[in-house]
Each structure stands twice: as structure tokens, then as C-alpha cells.
């Protein structure tokens, strides 16, 4: 025998599973990471007590100014990120929600991801050295470059490392510094042929750069729009596609001659 439910009772019965589903959705882990501006490191100086760039087999210059590589800090791959975390981050300019796959390789555990990031950094350092020496036509001179960035992982410091090597060996090519005495920051991968690639997390990196005193930020050209979206006041964006182009832009800034690219 069945009894008919009143309308309020029927609505209550129907609403119960909906509420349960909503509660599950709110607190269920999502495939995102929450990131924020990380530290910076002057590739012309020391990072955590160790010289970042050490050159042997050739004389090096005394440099002025700073070349800051920039980083982001993201929640670890095993951290549960739920809907409230995502919503909070949308309204916080110091944090960003990024697909976990864009931050960490998919399907790997924490130890594997750390190994992957270290390997990427090592490969990036090799390419940064090769790109710099190729640019200077000094790849056959027996110059050795040791790069040390402690626990920084990933390939995004490649461009800045190449610029640091060039500045220490050759400066602007006429006795001056690539930085022109400024605090210059940036990000970008580098290939051995000098091609600069995108990295992700650029708006957060511009915040880290300005926080640490940079007035110029070198950004992969394809990420100009992202960088402009939340650009800190007082930071000038310079888009680059190659190591040579980045050097030309810095020399133009230093000497006040020539056209400096802009986003």
C-alpha cells in the first residue's frame, strides 16, 4: 500500500540527494593546484650560499645590476584542492588556480615528480650554457660553466641563466653590463639554438619580480597577454622569442638607442 506525499514532503525527498551531491562536489578533490609568487634568484650572484654561475677556462667580468630568475610556489601534487579553495583563489590576486597537469606531470607520485623537475632543470642548464656559448661563438674554446640553483626545479630559468653567462663573459659587447645597472627579471625556457619558450604562471612571476625590485621583465612573446592581465605598476614588459633578441633589447634599454619591443 502506498501513501501519497504532500508537496513539501516530496520536495524534501527530492532535495536530499541533490544536497548530498552538492556537498560531495564542494568537498571533493579537484584536478587543480593553487599557486602563488615564489622566490627570485639573482643569477649573477649567489643563491642559498652558492654562486649560481661559475665559469672556468675564460676570464669573467665584474657585473652590476641584477638578473632575477622568478619562480612560483604551488600546492604539492598530493594536496587536496576543493571547490572552496578554487573560489577563494579566484578572488585573490596573489594566488592562481592552475590545472595540476600544467604544474606537475600527470599520473606521477611526489618522488617521481621531484625527479622529473630536477632532470628538467639539469637539461635546461645544459641548454642554457650551450645557447650562451653558441651566441658568443665560443663553443669550441673549452669554456666550462657550472650552474647551481639548489632545489629549484623545472626549465623556466633557462633564458635568465643564458643571459647571466653572456653578461659574465661579454656583457653588452662593448664594456657595459646587459642590465645597465638595473634589476631585470624574467622567465622562459631556452633551447640550444637560443629559442625562448613559454613557461606558465607568468602573472605570478611578474608579482615576484616587482616585489623584489625589478623594473624590467623579459617574457616569452606568446605569454604577453597573460603578463599584461595583472601587471604590477612600475614593471616594464619586454617580449622575447630568442636569446639574441633578449640581448638586443637589453642593450637598447641600456644605451637608450634602438627600438625596445613591447607587448
TrEMBL record:
GO molecular function: ATP-dependent peptidase activity; serine-type endopeptidase activity
UniProt KW Transcription regulation keyword: no
Keyword terms of this UniProt record: Signal
InterPro entries: Lon_proteolytic, Ribosomal_Su5_D2-typ_SF, Ribsml_uS5_D2-typ_fold_subgr
Keyword Signal (UniProt): yes
SUPFAM superfamilies: Ribosomal protein S5 domain 2-like (SSF54211)
Domain of life: Bacteria
Region forming the signal peptide: 1-28
Annotated protein name in UniProt: PDZ domain-containing protein
Species name: Streptomyces griseomycini
